[in-house]
Amino acid sequence: MLAREAGTWDAAVEIRMGPPGAHPEVSKGVEVSRLCCNGLWLIKEFKSDPSYPPFEGQGVAGYDPAKKKYTSVWVDSDISTPMTSEGTYDAASRTMTWQVTAFSGGKETRAREVEVWQDDDTRQLTMYMPGPEGKESAGLIITYKRRK
To answer: How far apart are CA 36 and CA 106, in angstroms?
Structure first.
């Protein structure tokens, strides 16, 4: 499952974290992912397009056979505490669903990421976050296209 994500990906980013009705922030970036440790782990490195405000992040993901779940740790230039995730993959729908734990202002925040593979060279990640009333909404959408 992790091996197919190895490679270089051009990313179109849409951030929808403003007030209701606000236009989303859009940017571009590049993710480079590679397998390590005999294919047990996937290391990701994301950098924003130089024409946008600087952003970079790194993550590592693998499969925990004891939990029968994928696990991930993510750090980036916007957070000071690592995000951790546990996920499951549904082969029939080609969808990875992650339960994310992050900390902001000393408070734990939970989110859900859904990554759908449209084909072997296109995938879309949507991060759903709880709103003020607890209702979940898409705060981040990244569409990845494999660079050939």
So the answer is: 33
